[in-house]
Amino acid sequence: MADQTRPSVTLALMREMGLTEETLARRKAFLELRDEDSERLRGLHDLAQQYAERVIEDFYAHLLSFEESKKFFTDPVVLARVKAAQKQYFLRLTQGHYDAAYVEDRLRIGVAHERIDLPIELYLSAYNFYLRTVMKHFVEAYGNHPEQVIPLFLSLLKLVFFDMGLATETYLFQRERTIREQQEAIREISTPVLPLRERLLLLPIIGAIDSPRAQQITTQLLHGIRTHRAKVVVMDITGVPTVDSAIANHLLQTVQAARLMGAIVIVSGLSPEVAHALVRLGVDLGTVQTVGTLQDGIEAAEQLLGYAVHKVESATADRPVERS
Amino acid sequence: MRVPILKQGPYLIASIQDALTDEDLAQLQQELVARVGQYRTRGVIIDVAALDVMDSFASRTLRDLAHAIKLRGARTVIVGIQPDVAFSMVRLGLSLVGADTALDLEDGLALLEQHV
Amino acid sequence: MAAETRVPIRQGGDIITARQAGRAVAAQLGFSSADQTLIATAISEMARNILMYARCGEIILRPEQEHRPGITIIAADEGPGIPDIQRALQNGYSTSGSLGLGLPGTKRIMDEFSIVSEVGKGTIVTMKKWKY
């Protein structure tokens, strides 16, 4: 899999994931991955180079025999590239120096795999295959010194677990980041700030309000007041099923903050259920102007701003009122 | 002097440009109170749009200032509180009791005109 | 990112320096603009306390990135200390006339907040804010 991740990107990723020298040292201590393991694995390198090709071929033959993994490698060019990359990866396991540069390299690979949406179980199954196949080769190669096989295998096991930890963490981190970004985007879309008239904003809220969304609403509302020079904001919560005390207090604080910016917030669409809930929770909406429906809210806002809306009886949809 | 004070008819406008030291604030207070008496000012607008932080000291100082100006028979309107600053103030429990607040200079003047 | 930023608090201008440094670190960590302001305000409160009651001290800013991104702010001084911390943390309490310590408000806006203080020795306020 062609990896287009620049080195500086993975370094930044390492920082974001909190993979400091300390953290990595602690992990190795936890896995008991020590210098002697590194030495042992380096001693394997020549042997590893001998059976690398075969292990890779066997591994991909195995992958291609399954429908769900076959689809990732339909292009022969991609397959060739992937095999080459995997061979490099595999050989790196027996080169020692499992330092920050090693980690950075592993992360880059993890990121590349996550980006093509390769399911993590496929990624981890590679390790499973290596360990089993490699064990067979060890036993063959060390036939005269069977007592060396287990220590060798255990060292490899420690390193593989180190790698797997990094791989899964990368996957999770990237997924979580994507989810957060999407949630942020959804929140922004779901809280539009609509200029209804000069100096009047409408903020219709639909759906449940959790803590991050409440903060989003506050930011949208207050910045909206500044951007549109609003004096009155109608915040409509008709579409909000329930409001707990934390959210209610947050909205209350938002109204107070709006006042510091010279704007009045009218909360409309308070259902009887929500009203009762707020009373029961002891939330004091004392100074906040609340009305039952969105219509009431807009009318109250218009009054505050000095608008009077009159219906012109003779006008119809076919012959609307002429704008002056 | 750090804070420029302009006269606009019966009103004074003080624009706080940057974070002020305690000495600057004390000086501003003195200046404003003196000028309110001098020009028979009816209202003072303090523009805090340039402040990116309003802590308890700043809000207390503005409250005291508004109080002193009131004793001289004039109103105070604080304008330009930024969105993030407004919310921080509320979260921190800070208030500007004794002064009115408006969005900006234009609205501040309109507010003072209303209460003639 | 630097492991730690220390701002000595010795005179009025240092309060501004400390909170600007705090805002910068918070921005680097990716805190929202609203949270940056909260952090800068908290620093301003604590720095001012140092100046008013202890004459000098320092603000230490530490980025946290181990498990989740966040910032640790430490306000330390060798001043007179706070005799009754519990009272100081109550709303409306003030030590000298109308000058309060701004502690209850600051505690509210931070995710973690602790004070260690000994009369005659000094005070250390440790606060943390997480990105999410």
Could you characterize what this model shows?
The complex is a heterotrimer of chains A (324), B (116) and C (132). Chain A is α/β, with parallel strands linked by helices. Chain A folds into two domains: 7-187, Globin-like (Orthogonal Bundle), CATH 1.10.490.10; 194-305, STAS domain (Transcription Regulator spoIIAA, 2-Layer Sandwich), CATH 3.30.750. Chain A has helices at residues 7-16, 21-31, 35-43, 45-64, 67-70, 76-92, 100-115, 120-141, 146-189, 211-228, 245-260, 272-281, 294-305, and strands at 194-197, 200-206, 232-239, 264-268, 289-291. A five-stranded mixed beta sheet of chain A has the order 1-2-3-4-5, with helices on both faces. In chain A, a hairpin with a 2-residue loop joins strand 1 and strand 2 (200-206). In chain A, helix 8 (120-141) packs antiparallel against helix 9. The longest helix of chain A has 44 residues, at 146-189. The model of chain A has no long low-confidence stretch (mean pLDDT 86). Chain B is of the alpha/beta class. Chain B has helices at 22-39, 56-71, 83-92, 105-114, and strands at residues 5-8, 11-15, 43-47, 75-79, 100-102. Chain B has a five-stranded mixed beta sheet with strand order 1-2-3-4-5. The radius of gyration of chain B is 13 Å and the shape is globular. Chain C has 132 residues and is an alpha+beta fold. Chain C has a single domain, classed as Histidine kinase-like ATPase, C-terminal domain (Heat Shock Protein 90, 2-Layer Sandwich), CATH 3.30.565. Chain C is built from four helices and seven strands; from the N terminus they run E-H-H-E-E-H-E-E-H-E-E. In chain C, the strands form two sheets. In chain C, strands 1-2-3-7-6 form a five-stranded antiparallel beta sheet, with helices on one face. Chain C has a two-stranded antiparallel sheet with strand order 4-5. In chain C, helix 1 runs antiparallel to helix 2 (33-54). Classes of the chains: A alpha/beta (324), B alpha/beta (116), C alpha+beta (132). At the B-C interface, helix 2 and helix 3 of B face helix 1, helix 2, strand 5 and helix 4 of C.
